[in-house]
Amino acid sequence: MRTILTSCLLVALAFCAPCRGQQRGPVPEDAEQTRGRERARELYAPLLEEAISSEEKARLAQQMIARGLDQEDDAAFAFGLFELAREVALMAGDEDTVLVAVRELTLAFRLDLAATRLGILDELRTRAKNPEQFRRYFEFAAESIDIARRRDDWEAAHRFLDLLEGLVPKTQDPGAKSRLKRLAENIEELEDGHAAYLEAAFDVQSGNARPDSYLIAGRYAAFLKGDWALGLGWLVQCKDEDIAAVAKAEFDHYEDSDHWLRIADLWFAVAQKETPGARPQIEDRTEAWYSAILGDLTGRERKRAEQRLTALFPAPSLPRDARPISFEADDWEVRCWIDREWKPFSLDKATARVRSGALELKNTTGIYGFIRLVYRPRFLEDDFLVAFDFRGQARELMIAPDNSLDMCIGTTVSEGGSKWRRAVFQRKAGTNRMWIDGVPQSLYTLAPTNQLPGFVGVSLESDLTLEIRKLHIVGGQER
Length: 479
What we know:
By secondary structure, this protein is of the alpha+beta class. The protein has helices at about 1-15, 30-50, 55-70, 75-90, 95-110, 115-125, 130-150, 155-170, 175-205, 215-225, 230-235, 240-250, 255-275, 280-295, 300-310, and strands at about 330-340, 340-345, 350-355, 360, 370-390, 395-400, 410, 420-430, 430-435, 440, 445, 455-460, 465-479. It contains 15 helices and 13 strands. It is globular and about 75 Å long.
């Protein structure tokens, strides 16, 4: 089963779909926009009159966004729903929903990216009161740069870079400055190489390729833009022997961990020779290959893969304003897997107790299988960072809904003992990563999308005990 799952992951890696931001539709004509707005307001007018509290208005705005995403045949109505959702969410003071509405609006339609997104960020920044809000704006602006570079909109990219520069000190995020530097290097190289790329791509597609055309076009598409589905096919034919070798190896779909390890090693070597603007995209691909096969490696090969993963992606530091969460038994909910269903299980002192600042959890059911303990006060979606110390022996550490067996993102924990270990789980820009004691872990993803929202959870087999301390959660939504 593991081989089948890994194979599916790697095939998806090699032939990923284009970014949503590349599939926008035209902005509706003025008359159509008016019709769409009027229809949205008419539909929701009675509900808006009844929505008194901020929470009720925020829920309505979320419903409008969901309905807008379902409008495949009426673009103007979708446009009106997204605009109304943004307006209602602003009235409710729900920044997360405001940003989601603007995100969907700019992904669905060919709007001026800078005008639409910078406008809302400027409005929200005047209300910001804490570093967590500025970190949220930073991520939204970074996402906007990614969309701008895919659209070859250099003016918008530079305006968002200027915004990020002002946000860096306010985020209190130790990694924000280096991330801004990487983004700026990538945009600079993309802009400088764009004309040469267009010429090379035209030569390749017209059958008049020069000796370096495949390398110029493939390197720009894959290494700079991250469009591997387009760039890999060109790199197979490029004159750089090292790059051509690894590109060819990606098209050899052998279900063999040695072959996959060779691909990861080759990309790692290529990344070391590349420019600062191209290196992050190659390192992302290197990490994906190493992580996909990490669980199949042993001995020196596993140690080398772990060392390289740690060097490429060190565990993130907590923001300076982060504070540990106080453990209260009422914050945890327990569900037991019985008769192929998650069923509520009583939480008492035998199951969970706080001792010396740590929460001690034990599966006392005596039932074959395991229980899931879920920390409920914080609902995790979009970008977040979770960190905690643990010792004992859990079956899994995960992010998951509290009532599903097959919807989770996590890692299996095989070692126990009395030594405290550090777990860090991060989702940033739709990418999930987990570290234990600073070493990146191989994650399984049992979900239709990496945007699965959920809770911090652990699974314990019968009679096993786990202790948790120094729990930090950055991002997500309070419940």
